[in-house]
């Protein structure tokens, strides 16, 4: 008999549910937005400076394993449509305690990611208004996005659709511009001639040795944070069997287009050694192409990208709190949904938490310092999240082989590839200990996990003993 969701864990109250109002185009652009964030637009320069042209290989490797995680998640989500998110999957196959830790941790990861993105909005806003205080645009962005999330989920989907479209258009324009410059062998004012030979020129592959190659993983992993957002749209997507399959299956195409091709074009035109680590390589390419408005245009794209990611953070964090409340792992009030199917209380709680985090702007005025700190915390929790999804898949295959056989969306790599993926995620986590700016956050995170374990044992263990256990074979 298959292991299924325990209906007794659902929150009482008929009709207090999320609504399936996200169209296919919404889910597709939400999944694209999750794969394109400030990590690509701003972090790519630093990664190229560290890894040289091997950065293309770094993104390709990470992209492959992220796709493996998403395919495993997709098979499990569609094996039982009562799963509202990957947190339900983890709680079912790895235990309620793990589901509790994952749910609250994932909520925190999106809160800190939203803080990072709003900090970046503030930093780039100063491009136009250098005398503006950093906290003002950040807080304005927060209130605007919370207001949008309070509306029906279809409004969120529409906002993300257009945010995502802006990012896609910007990257496509960059790729087209790059190919044109390469085709005409354009020579920039600094004497660099656009050519694909820059990808394989001597000293470009591993300019700082294997340590530089590994350092690229530390930064690049944050660029992929949010890809699993597909798994939180499951409860609100129309025809999830069709929309989730399409969103997951197009991940490799998006990785090749948005990461591999765009970075290959940038390096071919600018040359890796001429790309400044502290600037957006996207801006540099357009400037070399002779577009004086390039900086302002890319600045606008990065702001919309950061706002889009923060918007997704509020959405996903609130939905995770809503799910936790439904299973009595969070205050019952956070499980309230409006008539439009919006988890209003969870959205407000998430917004207040982010507002508290933005107080860092008063303590640490340096934008990049805050961004590095909070983005590392987010990346660590995302690695933890992906690991729990992968481990859940292994347990799912062992407990429910019949569900796998019936699945029309099988993860073809099976248990062996899931184990290899898990090993890779642990390897990347270990790499975070190599650099001082990521090591501090890595060493601090175990205290968060221990806090959640203690909280579960103290407040929820008694309730879990009285709950009817899941029916598993």
From TrEMBL:
The keyword ATP-binding does not apply. This is Amino acid transporter. It is found in: Cell membrane. GO terms for biological process: amino acid transport; transmembrane transport. Pfam families: AA_permease (PF00324). Gene3D superfamilies: Amino acid/polyamine transporter I. It comes from Pseudomonas fluorescens NCIMB 11764. One of its GO terms (cellular component) is plasma membrane.
């Amino acid at each position: 008999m298959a292991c299924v969701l325990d209906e007794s864990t659902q929150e009482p109250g008929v009709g207090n549910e999320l609504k399936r109002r996200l169209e296919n185009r919404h889910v597709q652009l939400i999944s694209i937005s999750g794969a394109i964030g400030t990590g690509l637009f701003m972090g790519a320069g630093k990664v190229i400076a560290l890894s040289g042209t091997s950065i293309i290989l770094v993104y390709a490797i990470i992209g492959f394993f992220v796709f493996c995680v998403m395919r495993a998640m997709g098979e499990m989500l569609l094996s039982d449509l009562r799963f509202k998110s990957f947190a339900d999957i983890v709680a079912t196959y790895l235990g309620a305690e793990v589901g509790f830790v994952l749910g609250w941790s994932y909520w925190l990861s999106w809160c800190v990611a939203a803080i990072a993105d709003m900090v970046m909005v503030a930093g780039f806003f100063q491009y136009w208004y250098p005398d503006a205080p950093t906290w003002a645009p950040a807080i304005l962005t927060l209130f605007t996005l919370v207001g949008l999330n309070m509306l029906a989920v279809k409004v969120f989907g529409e906002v993300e659709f257009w945010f995502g479209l802006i990012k896609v258009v910007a990257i496509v324009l960059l790729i087209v511009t790059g190919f044109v410059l390469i085709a005409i062998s354009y020579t920039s004012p600094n004497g660099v001639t656009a050519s694909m030979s820059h990808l394989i020129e001597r000293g470009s592959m591993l300019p700082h040795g294997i340590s530089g190659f590994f350092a690229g993983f530390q930064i690049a992993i944050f660029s992929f944070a949010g890809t699993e957002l597909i798994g939180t749209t499951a409860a609100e997507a129309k025809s999830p069997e069709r929309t989730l399959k399409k969103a997951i299956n197009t991940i490799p195409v998006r990785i090749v287009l948005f990461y591999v091709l765009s970075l290959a074009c940038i390096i071919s035109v600018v040359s890796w050694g001429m790309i400044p680590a502290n600037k957006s390589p996207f801006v540099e390419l357009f400037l070399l192409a002779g577009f004086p408005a390039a900086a302002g245009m890319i600045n606008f794209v990065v702001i919309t990208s950061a706002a889009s990611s923060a918007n997704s953070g509020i959405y996903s964090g609130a939905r995770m709190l809503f799910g936790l409340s439904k299973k009595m792992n969070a205050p019952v009030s956070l499980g309230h949904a409006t008539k439009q199917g919006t988890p209003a209380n969870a959205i407000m709680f998430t917004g207040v938490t982010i507002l508290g985090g933005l107080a860092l702007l008063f303590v640490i005025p340096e934008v990049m310092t805050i961004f590095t700190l909070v983005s590392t915390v987010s990346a660590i929790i995302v690695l933890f999240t992906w690991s729990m999804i992968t481990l859940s898949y292994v347990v799912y295959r062992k407990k429910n082989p019949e569900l796998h056989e019936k699945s029309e969306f099988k993860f073809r790599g099976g248990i062996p590839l899931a184990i290899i993926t898990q090993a890779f995620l642990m390897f990347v986590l270990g790499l975070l200990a190599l650099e001082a700016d990521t090591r501090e956050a890595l060493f601090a995170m175990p205290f968060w996990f221990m806090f959640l374990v203690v909280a579960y044992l103290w407040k929820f263990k008694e309730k879990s003993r009285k709950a009817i256990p899941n029916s598993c074979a």
